[in-house]
Amino acid sequence: MTRKMQRATPEAHREEPENHRGKQAGGAVKKEGHIREELMKAALTLFTQRGYSATTVRELVEAAGATKPVLYYYFGSKEGLFLELMRTHFGRLEAVIDVFRKGEGSIRERLTAMLEKGFVYIRQDRDFIRLMHAVYYGPPGEAPYFDFDAYHERYHDLVAQFMEEGIERGEFRSGNAGDMAWIILGTMEIAIEDQLCKTASRINQDTLKRLLHLVFDGLAADNDKGKGRRI
């Protein structure tokens, strides 16, 4: 993809609305942080079910129990809400992954743990992953451009760094660490797509672990360091 990064253009002034805490629901007024989160939840649900273009601002605020001025106050526009939704969910995934950048244990153990943890998070955030795939592979212009490729490259580079360190330690055989990273990420992508395409997924965490062991066994150096515990 070679599309330029777009920035959200506010559709309304970001002045604080008179009722910036949202509509009353059952006699109670929703708190600021809560209504912002409700708007993001509504956006995720509606964008996933109906698509970005087919979802109106009116539908978003009604689903969140808010008003249009509230949406414009927090996000500037529907486009701003979409972009913030993308940044927030990718940020949560990155926070899960960052924990494993450094730590004890072999590279294989740390990398396996990171990928398994990421997979668990993805299964819990399935609607976002479904939306991400729909936008990324969908028609150009269906939704505001978001630089998905930057995140994909970041994950690839991180796995490649793990592999380079593993090669230096003698855990993995000599080779192109970038190519090895593509093999590993390809395995992860198959597991992720299985979660999205099947009502009853065929790949669970145990299955993924077995698949990763097959991959790492194939990339292992011909010594005791590269051998992993079988499942």
Structure commentary:
The protein has helices spanning 32-50, 57-64, 68-75, 78-98, 107-124, 126-137, 148-169, 177-197, 205-219, and strands at 24-25, 28-29. By secondary structure, it is mainly alpha-helical. The protein has 2 domains: 24-76, Arc Repressor Mutant, subunit A, CATH 1.10.10; 84-226, Tetracycline Repressor, domain 2. Strands 1-2 form a two-stranded antiparallel ribbon. Strand 1 (24-25) and strand 2 form a beta hairpin. Helix 1 (32-50) crosses helix 6, helix 3 packs across helix 4 and helix 5 (107-124) runs antiparallel to helix 9 (205-219).
Please give a quick description of this structure:
The protein has 231 residues and is mainly α. It is built from nine helices and two strands; from the N terminus they run E-E-H-H-H-H-H-H-H-H-H. Strand 1 and strand 2 (28-29) form a beta hairpin.
Number of domains: 2
| Portion of residues within helices | 55-70%
* Strand portion: under 5%
Radius of gyration: 21 Å
The largest β sheet comes out as: 2 strands, antiparallel
Here the CATH topology of the largest domain equals: Tetracycline Repressor, domain 2
Mean pLDDT across all amino acids: 85
| CATH class assignment of the largest domain | Mainly Alpha
- Find the structural class using helix and strand composition: mainly alpha
> What is the strand arrangement across the widest sheet?
1-2
Q: Could you tell me the number of beta strands? A: 2
Name the CATH architecture of the largest domain. Orthogonal Bundle
Low-confidence parts: 1-16, 18-29
Shape field:
elongated
CATH homologous superfamily label of the largest domain:
Tetracycline Repressor, domain 2
Q: How far do the termini sit from each other?
A: 39 Å
Work out the helix count: 9
N-to-C order of helices and strands:
EEHHHHHHHHH
